[in-house]
Amino acid sequence: MALPPPLSAKDEKSFAYETIKDRLPLIVTRIVDFLARHRTNFAKQYGEVTENECKSCISAMDKLRYEIARDKPILLLNDNHTDDIHIWNEYLQKEMDQGKVISWFQSNWLLVECYMYRKIAEAFNLTAHLQHVDPFIEMKQHTFYSSVQAIDVVLAQLNIDIEQTTDPVNNKSTIEQQFYNYMEISLWGNQCDLSLSGGANRSQEHDPFHQITELKTHILINHETSLFNYLYDQQAYLLNFDVCIDFVLDNAGFELLTDLCFADFLISKRLCSRITLHLKCFPWFVSDATKTDFDWLLEQLSNSSSNSVWQIASKRWQQHIQNGQWIIQTHRFFTLPYDYSYMQQISSELYCTMSQSKLIIFKGDLNYRKLVGDLRWPLNERFETALRGFQPTSFVVLRTCKADVQVDIDLKVGQEITKIDPRWMVNGKWAVIQAFFKKQTEKDI
Ligand SMILES: O=P(O)(O)OC[C@@]1(O)O[C@H](CO)[C@@H](O)[C@@H]1O
Ligand SMILES: [Mn+2]
After folding, report:
1. What span, in angstroms and rounded, lies between the C-alpha atoms of 399 and 314?
2. Domain CATH for 81
3. Domain contains 341
C-alpha cells in the first residue's frame, strides 16, 4: 500500500511550517537566555572553565538558530561517547546515501524536530560540566508550582477515593466513574505542554473535576468505556494474576502529576498489578519528563511539611516504587527519530517486553504522531492502517490534538468541528482517547 507523504514544513500552510519558522527558534533563544543567566552560578559551582563551556553552548545554540532560519542541511552528530549516536547517525546517513539533503523546511517534520532536541543535547554533552544540566528545568518546575491549587484538589480527592475501601465487585459503577475521572484528568493534563507555547507558562489553575465535565464534548474519540471493561474484566482484583501496564509518559509538572494519579488509581483499585513508567533519557520537546523531573516531583510532595494531602499521596507512591508495583524506566528508543512501526526492528527487547503487557498507555501528541508515522493521512483513515503493523499488544493514546494529523474521524464530523473551531487540530482544545485492541491469537490464549 502506498503511504501518504510525511508532514513537512515544505507546506507553508501547515503547522509544521509554523513550528519550524517560529516556535523552534524561540525555544533555542530561551536556552541562550537560560545559559546567560546561569553562567556565573555554574562557574561558581563547577569552576571557571564552565564559563567557557557556557559560551560554547551559547554559540552552538546561535549556530543552530541560524541553520534553522536558513534551512541549512542537517549534519551527522558529533558527541561520540553517547550510546544512541550510532543509531542516530545511521538513520541520517541512510537518508543522505539516498541522495537526500535533510534540511529543516524541506524534510520530514518529525525527523527535524526530534533532531533539534538531540542537537541541543549534543552541545551540552560536549562539555565536561554541563552534561547533566537541563536547559528547560526552570520552565518545567514553574508549571508545577503555578498549578498548586489544581494539584491540591486532585490529590485530596484521590486520597479519599483510594482510602475508601470499595469492594470492586459490588461497587463497579463507583470505580468505573472514578476511572473515567482520573483518565480524563490525565488526558487534559496534556494541555500543559511547553513546546507548543515555546516555553511560556501553561498552568492549570482550576478545579480539574469540574473542568473534565465541561470538556467532555471536546473528546472527539472516546474509547474509555471499552478500556474500563477491558481492564475490569480481567479481574486482577479477584485472582492473583500479574497484569502489567506500560505507561509511556509525556510532560513533567502538572501533567506528570495527573498521570501518576491515574497510575496510582489503577494500582490501588487493582485494575492492574504492575506499571512500568517510561521517562525520557534526556531533555526532550521542552517539557517531557526525565527521571530527574520525576524524582523532583516526588520530593516536592514529600517535603511539603505543611501539606498532609501531598505527603499522604507521596508516601503511597514511594511504596508503589519500593514494592515493585511502579517500575521507573528510561529507554533510548523514545528519543530516537524512529516512529513506532520501527520499534520491533530497532529496539526488539523493548517491543518484546511491551508485548507482554495487558495495555500500553501512550500520553500526548508526539506519541500519537509517532504511532501514525506523522504522515498526511486522510481524516477518515482507519487507526489500524495508520499504525502500519505496530501491534505489540492493546493500547490507548490520551492526546490533546496539537499537530495536523488525526485518523478515525468521519469526514462530515471533521467539517463540523472545523466550522466551530478552524484550528481544532493544533490548538490543544480538542482531544482523543483512542484505543487499539489487539485481536487475540491462539498463541495468546
Ligand atoms: O507530545 P506533547 O507534549 O503532547 O506535544 C508536543 C508538541 O507540542 O510538540 C510538537 C510541536 O513542537 C507538536 O507535535 C506537539 O504539539
Ligand atoms: Mn511532550
Report:
1. 26
2. 1.20.930.60
3. yes
Question: Mean pLDDT, to the nearest integer, of 138-144?
Answer: 94
Q: d(Cα 102, Cα 92) in Å, to the nearest integer?
A: 8
Task: Look at residue 4 and tell me if it is in a domain.
Answer: no
Query: Average pLDDT of the chain?
Result: 93
Model pTM? 0.96
Question: For atom 3 of ligand 1, which residue has the closest CA?
Answer: 193
Tell whether 173 and 213 lie within a shared domain: yes
What range defines the domain where residue 229 resides? 137-436
Same domain? For 235 and 308 the reply is yes
Where does ligand 1 bind, in terms of residues with CB under 6 Å?
19, 23, 113, 190, 193, 195-196, 250-251, 285, 364-366, 369, 402-403
pLDDT mean over 282-300: 98
**Is the ipTM above a cut-off of 0.95?**
yes
CA distance 420 to 415: 9
Integer Cα distance of 445 and 441 in angstroms: 7
- Regarding whether 171 and 106 lie in a shared domain, the answer is no
**Whether the predicted pLDDT of 197 surpasses 90:** no
Residue 366 alpha carbon, nearest atom of ligand 1: 1
Closest CA to 74 of 27, 109, 46: 109
